[in-house]
Structures are given as C-alpha cells and as structure tokens.
Amino acid sequence: MPPGSFxxxxxxxxxxxxxxxxxxxxxxxxxxGLDKACAVEDPAWLLVAAVNDGVLVFYRFAVxxxx
Length: 67
Known about the structure:
It contains three helices and two strands. By secondary structure, the chain is α+β, with helices and mostly antiparallel strands.
C-alpha cells in the first residue's frame, strides 16, 4: 500500500486532483472542499516544532514518477 496524501478540492476538481496524487505514487485521501484547507495546512507547525526541539524528522519530497 502506498503512503497516503491528504487533499482538499471542490467537487468539480476532486477526480483530477485524486488522479494527480495517484500518478505521483500516493494513495489520495480526500478531506472535503476548500473550506477544509486550513485543516490540511495547520498541522505543518508540528514539523517545525519537532525540529526546533531537536527531533529528527524525515519528510520525503519527490517528483512525479520518482518514488
């Protein structure tokens, strides 16, 4: 099972957004419309807080097809 990727999108863009995520090698996890965007972005402070406290964090970035 590939790693998951949370995303938000309006109804008319949900299918193509999910396909882009699948094409990049992730399992798309829809969280709703754009009104939920803050719910996806707000947890980013957790990574910053962990690094500031000296916690080793692994976060992987990859180009599509490079996983």
